[in-house]
Design goal:
Layout (H helix, E strand, L loop, with lengths): L3 H16 L4 H12 L4 E2 H8 L3 H13 L3 E6 L2 E8 L3 H27 L4 H32 L1
Antiparallel strand pairs: 1-3, 2-3
Helix pairs in contact: 1-2, 2-4, 3-4, 5-6
């Protein structure tokens, strides 16, 4: 069972992630994986977080889908275990860059749709396109610099 300090960290991570639009349980599970010394089974995570195994399973799969966690097996054990994914933070940022590029694509699509008809809509969509193209490029450059610095 986590000590009071790690329990507090896990709870604060849950609250922080909840503010980003994900579930508090997702954040708590992420916090637990950050602190874990090795892979954890669904049962171990459920026990440590004092939540249902079903909730852990759902949120562990979400962590895996986002690239924060990976599922691993242990020799001689048929259960699934989870650990923090290698390059977890880069994985999340790459997904965000993909979402940013999708938004830029939608802005371009919107510009085509309105044509020359609506100056106010064109202005808003142009700002949207410029913003998302700029942010996508900047984040990609930052990720590249990160890889250069951290290998």
């Amino acid at each position: 069972m986590p000590n009071p300090e790690t329990r507090q960290f896990i709870e604060r991570m849950g609250l922080a992630v909840e503010r980003l639009g994900l579930t508090r349980t997702f954040g708590r599970l992420f916090g637990l994986l950050l602190l874990a010394d090795g892979p954890l089974s669904l049962d171990e995570m459920a026990d440590r977080l004092q939540i249902s195994k079903a909730s852990v399973s759902t949120n562990a799969r979400s962590c895996e889908d986002l690239g924060l966690a990976r599922r691993v097996g242990l020799r001689g054990d048929r259960r699934d275990y989870y650990e923090l994914a290698p390059r977890a933070f880069e994985n999340v940022m790459r997904r965000w860059v993909g979402a940013i590029h999708s938004m830029a694509g939608l802005a371009a699509e919107g510009l085509e749709a309105v044509g020359e008809k609506s100056a106010p809509a064109r202005d808003r969509l142009t700002v949207m396109l410029d913003f998302y193209l700029f942010m996508g490029e900047q984040i990609e450059e930052l990720l590249e610099r990160w890889r250069e610095v951290k290998g």
